[in-house]
């Protein structure tokens, strides 16, 4: 994703990072962070776990009457379940950086 969206996506710890940040140049102060971890059960089955964290200005939280920011982590988990990891990440990036990608 970083290669495809270099202005929006960053890996804070480089290629071995366990999180990915998404920023929008047109929305200063808004940042989404995807944190991932891998769980392996006793049978060796692998389960990727992704969580979405939001970093937004306090004023945006006050204006968010529909609670979209508050419910974003749960909505992201639902999106991952429906679309898969890669498509969900791409959808998230495109929605945050819509004007920049046009």
Please specify the SSE layout and strand pairing.
Blueprint: E1 9-10, E2 19-23, E3 31-40, E4 46-55, H1 58-63, H2 68-83, H3 85-96
Antiparallel strand pairs: 1-2, 2-3, 3-4
Helix pairs in contact: 2-3
Protein name: Centromere protein P
Pfam families: CENP-P
InterPro entries: CENP-P
Please characterize this protein's 3D structure.
This is Centromere protein P. There is one protein chain. By secondary structure, the protein is α+β, with helices and mostly antiparallel strands. It has one domain (2-58, 65-97). The chain has three helices and four strands; from the N terminus they run ββββααα. It has a four-stranded antiparallel beta sheet. A hairpin with an 8-residue loop joins strand 1 (9-10) and strand 2 (19-23). Helix 2 (68-83) packs antiparallel against helix 3. The model has no long low-confidence stretch (mean pLDDT 86).
- Beta-strand portion reads 25-35%
Count of DSSP-assigned helices: 3
User: Strand order within the widest sheet?
Assistant: 1-2-3-4
CA-based gyration radius:
15 Å
Shape: globular
Fraction of helical residues: 25-40%
Number of beta-strand segments: 4
The overall number of domains is 1
The SS-based structural class is alpha+beta
